[in-house]
Amino acid sequence: xxxxxxxxxxxxxxxxxxxxxxxxxxxxxxxxxxxxxxxxxxxxxxxxxxxxxxxxxxxxxxxxxxxxxxxxxxxxxxxxxxxxxxxxxxxxxxxxxxxxxxxxxxxxxxxxxxxxxxxxxxxxxxxxxxxxxxxxxxxxxxxxxxxxx
Length: 149
What we know:
The chain has 149 residues and is mainly alpha-helical. Helices cover 91% and strands 0% of the residues.
């Protein structure tokens, strides 16, 4: 019996490898986004702590030096938050880009799998035709020899 070999199997194998790489890139981008979002959350928490400290500083005995240091810390943290918001947006864009790339690679891989399935179906049909032809020839040969005998 004939063996099926897909002529573009090497291309399909490359598509599998590209898909694995794209999945890895996507997961790295997702992890990066999570880290950036966690960093932003920590900065928000730090800002809240500084603001709470500022409220406490103005309640008690007024220490203008401490109040000034606290305000500088709050402003610095606000700047850090703005920078971190940008970093989060960059990470979100990178994740979206990785997602689109993964989707494209998966589509290409699926396309090649469909092509392989169609090639296999054609191979099976051709094999069935050959088998049917061989059976018809055998029946015809047996029928003709039965008449002669």
